[in-house]
Design goal:
This protein is mainly beta. The protein contains five helices and 41 strands. It has a 22-stranded antiparallel beta barrel. A five-stranded mixed sheet has the order 5-10-11-8-9.
Length: 672
């Protein structure tokens, strides 16, 4: 599907998201005869996608059609193709995958699922690898914060927000239900069936349900280099079995507004293959994960000048880690952790003047951690986040300011707790449209963020340190965006260019002490970078088009902690100077062809730019073919084949955690 069609859908969604339009009982006169016909009621709903070109902060968006055309295998795979992101992948289908924006750290990046932030107070990182793309409407990444002044205070408190928005029910005229059955399978014993059902439950109420099962043995070959010797090995204990399901309710309120509710459940058992050890391929580590959350959101216009957004969420996370080894008493170690979170949020928006908008967001959070580890303090944390926000539009200028207040207090059942933490974090962004006749925008941003130590940082066994100071980060960004109007040769062309500087102080790291590693504030980091993106659509004739997109990132992230240290002013581990990707999509009357390549430059696996830590550059190529068939008036069949890493590139993202080589996947779905 061409980008032009996608832009039309985006515009329609933006208009529809402002209100629910109901056409009930309209009467139309037949122009052939004098017969009148009553048109069935049609309810149209939509979701506004984030602006990219005119936003005051860098925003990247990938829609569902683009996700399909690139042959992407999950959210982590898609995020890797966004400029300025670092995805740490520990290999395999079930390996942990986390995202960091512009090297600020995983804990500074919020992951939002249908408007509410996902959380993990124990470790501060979200495994985005567990989320499928099967029901995703779009992914967006806002560096700074998104433009919506009705968002939660948690979003304002983060250095960047990765937003996952799921699909909402859509019905053809006169229908009250729709469904989909999908089956995917591929290399390494991967099989994943899924079901979806959409139901209209009333004039203003719709329901949806999704369920997905996945299993894979995860055994894949890789090349192991030992000096001058290169051998072919097989990755073991990388299997996964998982279940995921969610149910949603969408209700349009009389007089405007909407109430939504979601229940989500995930369970998995996986092997942890660990790092590659020479002459020892045996690993016995296992991990069980369970996550359930229920969330609800109310959006309600109170008057022409006032709007309210209120949310509530309960989140339960449980995991069990088990390792079998003779070094443990009884030959086995089992750690069990349980997290519970209670979350409330309310945002009130006021528009006193046509060009001025104000909002106040207040979040309250209670987090509890319980473990079976001896002498665990079982901490309880209370967090208050308050964000005061203002947006002023004046001619070609669009100015937005935020001030976020953070207050955190911990209580423990054993040992000592840190002092209460309080902080004010300001933010200012500006977009300037210098010439109304030209689609050129200039933007600038400053943002301060404040990261409180996680429970693991403070309390984990003997590594924790309750005297840790919160980590602070400052972001500076200057950029421009430009779009070429449609021509005979191009349907569209958009370009963005952003230069940035980030400064991190009191960085929390694991630092070796006399006998053990211990968490400490031992770090100052300077990060200079450049992100560039491009997207274009070229018409090739009737029902033919070529879509091109790509991005490039330059990042110089250096350690500024200790001028006397040998690693002073050297590149941070796992940070390439150069990285980027490109994608091509060819639309024909018969099928869609997609090709993408991701390239990552040299980087180092440890502090200090020494040859023994050097990791070579790599590029990964993916090819995808898809076609959709109309079986009946309402039934469609879609087939897709993906060839991933078609050159069989052997590489690590994390050293000694080899990634799979060439693999394939087939997917078929019937929508009815």
């Amino acid at each position: 599907m061409s980008i032009r069609i996608g832009m039309r859908r985006c515009c329609i969604g933006m208009l529809c998201s402002l209100a629910t339009v109901q056409l009930a009982g309209q009467v139309v006169t037949d122009t052939i005869g004098d017969t009148t016909h009553a048109i069935d009621e049609v309810q149209v709903t939509g979701r506004r996608m984030p602006r990219r070109l005119s936003a005051a902060v860098p925003v990247q968006v990938i829609g569902s059609e683009e996700l399909k055309s690139r042959g992407l295998q999950g959210v982590a795979d898609a995020v890797r193709r966004m400029a300025g992101t670092t995805v740490r992948d520990y290999g395999g289908i079930g390996g942990l995958k986390t995202v960091s924006v512009r090297n600020l750290g995983v804990q500074h990046t919020a992951v939002s699922y249908d408007g509410i932030t996902l959380s993990n107070t124990q470790a501060g990182q979200i495994d985005i690898g567990r989320f499928s793309l099967d029901n995703v409407a779009y992914l967006s990444l806002a560096i700074g914060q998104a433009e919506d002044l009705l968002q939660t205070a948690r979003h304002y408190a983060s250095a960047g927000v990765l937003t996952i928005e799921t699909e909402r029910p859509r019905f053809e005229a006169g229908r009250r239900h729709a469904g989909r059955v999908m089956l995917k399978g591929g290399s390494f014993g991967s099989v994943s069936p899924s079901l979806r059902w959409w139901q209209r439950a009333g004039e203003r109420t719709t329901l949806s349900a999704e369920a997905t099962f996945q299993r894979a043995d995860g055994i894949y070959p890789f090349s192991l280099t030992n000096g001058s010797s290169v051998t072919r090995e097989r990755r073991h204990n990388s299997d996964i079995t998982s279940w995921q399901g969610e149910a949603n309710l969408y209700h349009t309120l009389k007089g405007g507004g909407e109430w939504t509710a979601k229940a989500y459940y995930y369970y998995s058992e996986r092997g942890l293959p660990g790092s590659v050890i020479l002459y020892n391929a045996i690993t016995e580590e296992r991990l069980w994960d369970e996550n359930f959350f229920a969330q609800t959101t109310l959006r309600k216009p109170l008057s022409e000048a006032w709007q309210l957004r209120a949310s509530a969420k309960y989140n339960h996370s449980w995991n069990r880690y088990e390792d079998t080894d003779v070094k443990y008493d009884g030959g086995r170690q089992t750690d069990v952790h349980r997290q519970d979170e209670y979350y409330l949020s309310a945002t009130l928006l006021w528009k006193p003047l046509p060009r001025l908008t104000l909002s106040l967001a207040q979040d309250g959070v209670a987090n509890a951690l319980r473990t079976n580890v001896n002498d665990s303090p079982n901490p309880l944390r209370f967090t208050s986040l308050t964000a005061l926000n203002a947006n002023l539009k004046s001619g070609p200028l669009d100015l937005t300011a935020h001030l976020t207040a953070t207050y955190v207090t911990d209580d423990v059942k054993a040992g000592s707790a840190p002092d209460d933490r309080k902080h004010l974090s300001p933010s200012l962004s500006l977009a300037w449209h210098p010439c109304p006749s030209l689609p050129l925008y200039l933007r600038a941003m400053y943002k301060s963020t404040f990261r409180v130590p996680t429970f693991n940082d403070l309390y984990y066994r003997r590594m924790g340190n309750v005297n840790l100071r919160p980590e602070k980060a400052g972001e500076y960004n200057l950029g421009l965006t430009w779009s070429l109007p449609p021509t005979d040769l191009l349907d569209n062309l958009t370009l963005t260019l952003d230069g940035y500087y980030n400064r991190v102080t009191d960085k929390i790291v694991a630092f070796p002490s006399t006998y053990i590693w211990r968490m400490a504030n031992f770090g100052k980091v300077d990060i200079w970078g450049l992100d560039a993106t491009m997207a274009a659509t070229i018409p090739l004739g009737k029902a033919w088009s070529l879509g091109l997109s790509g991005n490039y990132s330059y990042q110089k992230a250096t350690d500024k902690t200790d001028p006397t240290a040998k690693n002073y002013n050297t590149q941070l581990p796992y940070t390439p100077l150069h990285s980027g990707n490109a994608a091509l999509t060819l639309e024909t009357p018969w099928l869609r062809l997609g090709y993408s390549v991701t390239a990552v430059g040299r980087r180092y696996s440890a502090a200090g730019e020494e040859q023994e830590y050097l990791m070579r550059a790599y590029d990964e190529h993916t090819l995808t073919l898809s076609r959709e068939f109309s079986l009946t008036g309402t039934c469609r069949l879609r087939l897709q084949a993906d060839l991933v890493n078609l050159t069989d590139e052997q590489y690590d993202i994390i050293k000694y955690y080899p990634m799979p080589g060439r693999s394939w996947r087939l997917a078929g779905s019937i929508t009815f």
